[in-house]
Design a protein that fits this description.
Layout lengths: L2 H4 L6 H22 L27 E12 L1 H4 L17 E4 L8 E4 L3 E8 L2 H7 L2 E5 L4 H7 L1 E9 L1
Parallel strand pairs: 1-5, 2-4
Antiparallel strand pairs: 1-6, 2-5, 3-4, 3-6
């Protein structure tokens, strides 16, 4: 009796394929358990002011800087019936700004010489086609103030 006749499994390629797959599975699972996936920590958590809701606040990181057109609008011309609701669903106020479509809602925008704002609305598409990247500041009911502000080209810093 020969050894080759005694162990027929040694020549079967399917057997070895299955064995290799099982061993590979255990090696991969062992590696995954030792190297868990870690989420990127690009924010600094701080205490939440709401009691029952856990919302992680973060300080935005710088994304890019550009020269853009800044204009003003008022609720007299855009919301004659009363409340102005932005694209994000919030009511317009002096800390919110209308941004171009490629900037995500909620991004922080710093306009040199004016201040910091949160992107909560969208600039009209036809205005962007005509003037390029345009940011619209809300002047409340002050239509004359918005007209007096006019259209300016200023440096804008966008943060995530």
């Amino acid at each position: 009796m020969r050894i080759e006749d005694d162990v027929p499994l040694r020549r079967d390629p399917v057997f070895w394929f299955v064995i290799i797959c099982i061993i590979s599975f255990f090696i991969i699972m062992n590696w995954i358990s030792k190297n868990p996936r870690q989420e990127p920590q690009n924010y600094i958590p701080r205490e939440e002011s709401m009691v029952r809701q856990t919302n992680v606040h973060y300080y935005p990181s710088f994304r890019y800087s550009t020269l853009a057109c800044i204009s003003g609008y008022s609720s007299v011309e855009t919301c004659p019936d009363g409340e102005c609701i932005t694209a994000s669903g919030k009511e317009a106020d002096k800390y919110l700004i209308a941004c171009p479509y490629h900037i995500p809602l909620g991004s922080v925008v710093k306009i040199k010489g004016i201040g910091r704002f949160t992107c909560a609305d969208r600039t009209a598409y036809w205005i962007q086609e005509k003037y390029g990247d345009t940011f619209d500041l809300w002047f409340g009911d002050d239509y004359e103030g918005a007209k007096e502000f006019g259209r300016k080209y200023l440096e804008v810093e966008v943060y995530n």
